[in-house]
């Protein structure tokens, strides 16, 4: 199965000594919901064909202290949804242990 192309995109980077740990938690948590779930090198791509608001994907590139996120969706509403979900999940796992910043660029 190929990765769909969506017209609306955003990218973000998380830099922290435990960034890779948080990204791996997110991948593990979401891969059961992804159709398909693809891994190529250091990049995992999760495609969500029937997310609450529609179709979207997240590509997560993991390094030890830096993680790159690339999100794409069929419209701005779905992009807002998936970028918000990525951010809230990562921040939820960090809780009060770490101060993190994820800034999305479109």
Structural descriptors:
single chain; alpha+beta; 36% strand; five-stranded antiparallel beta sheet; TATA-Binding Protein; 106 residues; 5 strands; 2 helices
Q: What's the architecture in CATH terms?
A: 2-Layer Sandwich
DSSP strand content: 35-45%
Distance between termini?
A: 27 Å
The number of E-state strands comes to 5
Q: What is the element string, with H for helices and E for strands?
A: EHEEEEH
Instruction: Name the quaternary structure.
Output: single chain
Q: Compute the CA-based radius of gyration.
A: 13 Å
Helix/strand/pairing class, anyone? Answer: alpha+beta
Give the strand order of the largest sheet, numbering strands 1, 2, ... along the chain. Answer: 1-5-4-3-2
- Counted up, domains total 1
Poorly predicted runs of 5 or more residues: none
Number of helices in the DSSP assignment: 2
CATH class: Alpha Beta
In the CATH hierarchy, the third-tier topology is known as: TATA-Binding Protein
Q: Overall pLDDT, averaged?
A: 88
Overall 3D shape: globular
Helicity, as a percent range: 25-40%
């Amino acid at each position: 199965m190929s990765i769909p192309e969506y017209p609306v995109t955003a990218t973000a980077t998380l830099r922290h000594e435990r960034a890779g740990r948080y990204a791996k938690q997110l991948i593990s948590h979401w891969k059961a919901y992804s159709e398909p779930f693809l891994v190529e090198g250091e990049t995992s791509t999760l495609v969500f064909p029937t997310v609450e608001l529609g179709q979207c994907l997240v590509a997560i590139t993991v390094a030890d202290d830096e993680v790159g996120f690339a999100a794409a969706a069929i419209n701005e509403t779905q992009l807002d949804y998936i970028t918000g979900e990525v951010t809230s999940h990562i921040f939820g796992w960090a809780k009060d242990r770490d101060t993190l910043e994820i800034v999305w660029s479109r």
